[in-house]
Amino acid sequence: MEDSISAWEAALLLYQTSKQPMPAVPRAVARRWQFIACNECILELYHLRARLEKVHTVLLAGCPSIRPLIDTSKLKAARKRLNEDFPHIEALRHATAHKGEIEAFPEQHAADGNFALSGFREADRYSLNYKGQIRFLDITPQSLHNIAEAVQAFFDGFAPAAAKLKNEGHLD
């Protein structure tokens, strides 16, 4: 999960660099870097959400001796916060993964029914069309901060178990 934060941070830095590239970098290349960075941010966030869900709903079920020590309300709250902070992530993932289809059939996906364009309608807000709506993700330090806070809140749910295991000498 920390890898997701690192990957998101790297993509954010690529995005920021692409906005003011070194003189040796052609403008077209820097512009392409913005889209690469946005795609990475979307996919990492989608995968992070899936990992949190799997740990919470599947993997803990296989740990009956530890499960009662986990504060599952914190896990649930962290997942809820991530979903509230990034409500469009599933649609953005699908729009990113199936961009060619969406562009080929704008009548099914474009908000206006004509043009399924992706890009920046607002500063640092990456937008895509999906199923008749414009979906967006802010590529900002605040988004990275929100992701890191949600992950930390999720980890905090394991604190009681970690404390007990450490007290029993299982963690060094």
The stretches of 5 or more residues where confidence is low (pLDDT under 50) are: none
Sheet with most strands: strand arrangement: 1-2-3
- Tell me the fraction of residues in β-strands, as a range: 5-15%
What is the count of DSSP helices, taking H or I runs of 4+ residues? 8
What share of the residues lie within helices? 55-70%
Number of separate structural domains: 1
Instruction: Tell me the structural class.
Output: mainly alpha
Overall mean pLDDT = 91
The ordered string of helix (H) and strand (E) elements is HHHHHHEEEHH
Radius of gyration: 19 Å
- Mass-distribution shape: elongated
Characterise the protein shown here.
With 172 residues, this protein is mainly alpha-helical. The chain has one domain (2-167). Helices cover 62% and strands 9% of the residues. It has a three-stranded antiparallel sheet, with helices on one face. α2 (27-57) packs antiparallel against α3, α2 (27-57) packs across α4 and α3 (72-85) packs antiparallel against α7. The chain is elongated, with a radius of gyration of 19 Å.
Topology:
Blueprint: H1 2-19, H2 27-57, H3 72-85, H4 89-97, H5 99-104, H6 106-109, E1 119-122, E2 125-130, E3 133-138, H7 141-156, H8 159-167
Antiparallel strand pairs: 1-2, 2-3
Helix pairs in contact: 1-2, 1-7, 2-3, 2-4, 3-7
